[in-house]
Every structure is written in C-alpha cells, then in structure tokens.
Design a protein that fits this description.
The chain has seven helices and twelve strands. With 278 residues, it is α/β, with parallel strands linked by helices. The strands form three sheets. Strands 1, 4, 9, 10 and 11 form a five-stranded mixed β-sheet that branches. The chain has a five-stranded mixed β-sheet with strand order 5-12-8-6-7. Strands 2-3 form a two-stranded antiparallel sheet. The longest helix has 20 residues.
Length: 278
C-alpha cells in the first residue's frame, strides 16, 4: 500500500527531491535525542506498539576454570510494551505558487516544508526528554527510577563541571561506565561557553572531556534543566516505526496539502542509566 501517495501530488521528481532535502536538513539540524540515543528500526509505519526488555541490577561476569555456572545468565527483569505515536505537521503548497515558480524557471520554494519538519523535530525531542502526559509515557527528565543530583550554581566558575562530575559519579556507582552524553537547556549551555579558570579552555570542553562524549543544547529542556545518560542499546533505544518522511494528503480548493510525519517511541531499558541535574 502506497501510504505516501506521492504519485497523486503535482510535483516533479526534482521538486520532490527538493522537498525531501529541505525536510531532512531542517530536522537534522535540530534533533538532539537522536544524537544521544541509538535508533532501533525503521520497524515499519504500521507498527502500533513494540514489546521490549527492561533490565535491573548489575552482576559481574563469571571467572573460573570451567565456566560451569548457571547463576550468571543475564535475563530481562520484565517485558513492557510501548506504543509508537505519530508525530506530524501539515503544510500547504498554493497551486499558483507552484505554477509561478515553474513559469519563471526558478526552483520550487520549499521553505514551508522545512518549517513543518522543524516543528516535528521539536515535538520529537520534547517526547524524548519530557514524555507525554496525554499518552502516559515518560521521558528522560521524568523517568521513574532515574538518578538525580542537585543543580549547583552554573554562574560560578567550575559549576557546570562540578555538576557533570556528580552525575558521572552517580552513574558509575550504578554500574554505568560510559561513554556518556549530556543535554542541557539553552540557558545552562550559555553558562558553559566561558573560559575555565586559567586553563585557556572553555568549561564546555572540560565537561566534554569528562563525559567522553558530547554536550548538546536542546530547547526541549527548559530553564535550569540538564540530563546525563550512559549511552548504548543496553540502556536506551529510540524505536522508529516510520522515519521522517513527507506524504501527499489531498487537494483542497485547488491547493495541495502535504504532511511531514514519523512514528517513534523512547525505550528505557535501564532507568538508572539516566541522571538528571535539577
């Protein structure tokens, strides 16, 4: 079944390429969650829900001369099912705009598609970090069982690094040894872009060195919010049914409606691989 119905749209192959390029570029510039969490999929647009394993506790691997022990087998603590909602935004091409661009011999203006893609990207990160009360799902910032450390004064020199050290220590104590990734609100990110002491280095660079990973600002985190995660599919996944794509919807008053959409959900396999700074 051709759910995208692109053949019904009044666009040429080259114009569709321009739309797709604008959508992917706009979303890629904004998405933060995908930079931190590995993607599982695409699983298919028709996948409504997905069962997945949840783990708890950490036991050492075996070390002996025979390997004849059955008590060291890794097993899921339980299995849970998560729904994959649709994230979408519609946009409209006026038929006169399409005809005018072709008449003038200029490329189709696809900026409106980029606007729709940016809105979907913002919704994706909001779902990953904050969850959805409407859907009854948790995000990184409010996951039950996550670790937390207190937010210090980031306006003071060394404040961001001190809090990052706290978060890493908490994750290490829980058995998560990295690599790590960190997301912060735009406000807190601004506090890291200054020289650290007499080192000649930015505090941001010091935090990155500690985490052995990256630090990302995200508008999905408000005010004084930050989170550090231990990355890896053993801890977290982003389950993607249909990856970001543009479909043709219908003609309406001679104008043409399109939709940018995707389906996905956050899988939290180990909640103690998440440490919020708050």
């Amino acid at each position: 079944m051709d759910i995208l119905d692109r053949k019904s749209a009044p666009l040429t192959g080259e114009e569709w390429n321009r739309v797709d390029d604008a959508v992917i570029k706009a979303a890629s510039r904004m998405l933060v969650g995908r930079k931190m969490i590995e993607v599982l999929g695409p699983l298919g647009p028709g996948v409504y829900s997905l069962p997945y394993a949840i783990f708890s506790g950490h036991n050492p691997a075996g070390l002996d001369m025979t390997g004849d022990r059955a008590d060291l087998t890794v097993e899921a603590d339980r299995r849970q099912t998560v729904n994959l909602p649709i994230l979408f935004k519609d946009f409209k091409f006026f038929w006169r705009d399409v005809e005018a661009d072709r008449h003038l011999g200029i490329p189709l203006d696809v900026s409106i598609a980029a606007v729709a893609a940016a809105d979907v990207a913002m919704q994706e990160d909001d779902l990953i970090f904050n969850g959805s009360q409407q859907l009854g799902v948790e995000g990184l910032l409010n996951a039950d069982g996550r670790l937390t450390v207190s937010l210090g004064d980031w306006q003071q020199g060394g404040g961001p690094l001190a809090d990052a050290v706290q978060a890493v220590n908490a994750l290490t104590s829980a058995g998560h040894y990295g690599p790590y990734a960190m997301a912060v609100s735009p406000y807190l990110y601004g506090q890291t872009v200054r020289v650290y002491g007499n080192t000649g280095m930015l505090e941001l660079d010091q935090v990155k060195a500690l985490l052995r990973g990256n630090v990302y600002p995200s508008a999905a985190l408000k005010n004084n919010k930050a989170v550090v995660i231990a990355t890896g599919i053993q801890n977290l996944n982003l389950a993607v049914g249909q990856d970001l794509v543009t479909s043709y919807m219908a003609a309406e008053n001679m104008n043409h409606i399109f939709r940018v959409f995707e389906t996905l959900a956050l899988l939290i396999r180990r909640a103690d691989a998440i440490c919020t700074i708050e």
